[in-house]
Design brief:
- By secondary structure, this protein is of the alpha+beta class.
- It folds into 2 domains: 160 residues, Sandwich (Jelly Rolls), CATH 2.60.120; 51 residues.
- Helices cover 29% and strands 23% of the residues.
- The protein is built from 8 helices and 10 strands.
- Strand 5 and strand 6 form a beta hairpin.
- Helix 2 crosses helix 4.
Length: 245
């Protein structure tokens, strides 16, 4: 799973270029990152004559096509996004990207940490947007403005506003998948996530996770997750329909 943006500041465009079908050597791709915040990045991109090969992100990728026709394969279907339309790509969902015409296309996009969205939803399950293309009139105008002025800083208040707007967008156009749990103990699971993040190479016993979170092991680790990767189970909560701490 590939993480393109960084946590605030200026992100590195090398991971995106690595997904080019041409192997990263191209003159038809233009990338420019705007000002970010912790868990949020903004990017302006244009492409002509090149294409992104199939890849994944560990963030939400929520953007608006500005010029041309953007086409991408997502969840078994080819999609088209016209100027003014938005697309919503969920974390860890395989997709590609290319121009639908010879003229190329341009877009601006948010990369948003799903953990921020889960916090904004009060720990409720992340909604799933089955149709990734959304009409502009169905999107909060504030999101359009935050992309239009992406060089303006995102302070703490703006970071909260962007996150809430994204959470509302997902909730409005999404559904809760069958079998999803109810609200999660976000703060408790965050302590587990932070312990793993401090040194991902260390294998912590489940008892330690239980101790610092106050939760039982079945709450910390979904039964369907691979038993051989306790760290993966916790981090997966931030990028899947199960939830996030």
């Amino acid at each position: 799973m590939d993480h393109v943006p960084g946590a605030g500041g200026r992100a590195d465009d090398a991971p995106l270029r690595a997904h080019l079908a041409a192997g990263g050597e191209t003159s038809g791709l233009r990338l420019r990152f705007g000002r970010g915040a912790d868990g949020i990045e903004r990017l302006a991109a244009s492409m002509a004559g090149d294409a992104f090969s199939p890849h994944r992100h560990d963030t939400y990728a929520i953007g608006m096509t500005l010029t041309g026709v953007q086409t991408f394969h997502y969840r078994g279907e080819q999609r088209h996004c016209l100027p003014g339309e938005w697309h919503v790509l969920h974390p860890d969902e395989l997709h590609d990207g290319a121009a639908g015409t010879d003229e190329g296309f341009g877009y601006r996009i948010f990369y948003v940490d799903p953990c921020l969205v889960q916090e904004a939803l009060g720990g409720a399950p992340l909604p799933f947007v089955a149709d990734p293309v959304i009409a502009r009139h169905d999107v909060d105008p504030a999101l359009v403005a935050w992309l239009a002025y992406m060089d303006e800083p995102l302070g703490d208040f703006e970071r909260i506003e962007v996150t809430l707007a994204v959470a509302r967008l997902l909730s409005r156009h999404g559904t809760v998948r069958p079998g999803q749990r109810g609200a999660l103990a976000v703060d408790a699971l965050a302590r587990v996530r932070d312990l793993i993040a401090d040194d991902p190479a260390v294998r912590h016993p489940v008892a330690e996770f239980e101790r610092i979170s106050g939760l039982d092991r079945w709450t910390i680790a979904p039964p369907s997750a691979p038993r051989s990767a306790p760290a993966r189970r916790v981090f997966a909560r931030c990028g899947s329909s199960t939830g996030c701490g």
